[in-house]
Amino acid sequence: MIKSFFTLLAATISTTAWAAPIPPLQTRLVATGFDQPLFATAPNRDSRLFVVEKGGLIKIIQNGTVLPTPFLDLSGSVDTSGERGLLGMTFDPNFVDNRRFYVNYINKTTLDTVVATYQASAAQPNVADAASAQTVITIAQPEFSNHKAGWIGFRPGEANNLYIGTGDGGFRDDPQNRAQNLTENLGKMLRVDVSADRFPGDTTRYGYAIPAGNLANGNPGINAEIYAYGLRNPYRDSFDRETGTLYIADVGQNNREEINIGSAGANYGWRVFEGTRLNFPDDAQPPNHTPPIFEYDHNGLGASITGGYVYRGLEIDGLQGTYFFADFVTDQVMSFRFTGTGITELTDRTAELLSPTGISGQISSFGEDGFGNLYLVSINGRIGMITAVPEPEGYAMMLAGMVLIALWVRRRERMCQD
């Protein structure tokens, strides 16, 4: 009987560990006092967190403290009207060796998108070398102040190629149908090779090459930078740091918010489609429309999606592979798992992650640090880290009791065998 009890207990403990249920989550406030923060990121395995403010400053949180000197100040170069601003940042995969990083902003003089590269100072690693600025690419923008997207990033294992998400440039209904126009770089996911300075004799230009596998593949009638197209405003995108899967969260217009999976040559349908909804029935329907893996209408979850990340941190058991996203209008935070063909475990995380005293809403972005931990970035100036709720004392005592019982049972078994 004793042996049977021990076997059952061991099986129970083993099953519990194997299932790795997701514990209750919370948002732990990390820092406050930012001015319209739009993004947070870090180099791989780096303990600092870099926070991007709309007005042009990049600040560092180090050991729980916001450093007084900005990492980079672009406030004199950035236009901030409407959805313009300093919109994106990413670190070169070889940042440890080359100190190089990239930013995406709207230029105050031209009102065009500029993607530029800088280097961190060799002598002062918490300060960027302002004199190292070089332009990678400039993308012409129409006069409208919305739909500027702004995300940039590198796919894990693809160190040479920088991905750039662009919106259709505004106004409503993409009046020039730029997202479907393959001679325009707006409403697209672009991909360029930034492995080397293409203008070594020019200190202001860095340039790029065209990687193999983009849409054009030598076709002169298609812009060579285009990787995928048919996007309205892919404001926040991300790569799964384990699988390399590209998640594209595209902000909708009046009806649908959507999440797409990035793939070379894909056409996500805008403006003809808004998600799976036919938006312009009089336009020619694209035969190669790639539908979203997930969408929601404006009668339920919200009206302005903020894309997030797949959790790959090591701190929260059971959460591995879970994708997070939010809605800026309704202040909801959600998660799901992507199976490769569809989604499972769609879960409302709002009650867990938002609170009046912590991150209360207005999620302008998610962030990911150098170890795969995820953060909520609120435009009201607060940054919080998604963590597990500490186990209650009673639960910990129960586990300790189970261990003691197991030890007692083992001792009894030995005595019976003797």
Beginning-to-end CA distance, first to last residue: 17 Å
Shape: globular
Total strands: the figure is: 27
**Are there runs of 5+ residues with pLDDT below 50, and where?**
1-19, 394-399
The total count of helices amounts to 4
Mean pLDDT figure: 92
SS-derived structural category: mainly beta
Strand content: 25-35%
How large is the radius of gyration? 24 Å
Helicity range: 10-25%
Largest sheet: 5 strands, antiparallel
Q: How would you portray this structure in words?
A:
There is one protein chain. This protein has 418 residues and is mainly β. Helix content is 12%, strand content 34%. It is built from four helices and 27 strands. Strands 2, 3, 4, 5 and 6 form a five-stranded antiparallel sheet that branches. The chain has a four-stranded antiparallel sheet with strand order 1-27-26-25, with no helix packed on it. Helix 1 (2-19) packs antiparallel against helix 4 (393-417). It starts with a helix and ends with a helix. Residues 1-19 and 394-399 have low confidence and may be disordered.
Question: Which descriptors would you attach to this protein?
Answer:
34% strand, mainly beta, single chain, globular, 27 strands
Mind sketching the topology for me?
Blueprint: H1 2-19, E1 25-31, E2 37-41, E3 49-53, E4 57-62, E5 65-66, E6 72-73, E7 86-91, H2 95-98, E8 100-106, E9 113-120, E10 128-139, E11 152-154, E12 161-165, E13 188-193, E14 226-229, E15 236-239, E16 246-250, E17 256-261, E18 273-274, E19 277-278, E20 294-297, E21 305-310, E22 323-327, E23 332-338, E24 343-348, H3 350-353, E25 363-368, E26 374-378, E27 382-388, H4 393-417
Antiparallel strand pairs: 1-27, 2-3, 3-4, 4-5, 4-6, 7-8, 8-9, 9-10, 11-12, 12-13, 13-14, 15-16, 16-17, 17-20, 18-19, 21-22, 22-23, 23-24, 25-26, 26-27
Helix pairs in contact: 1-4
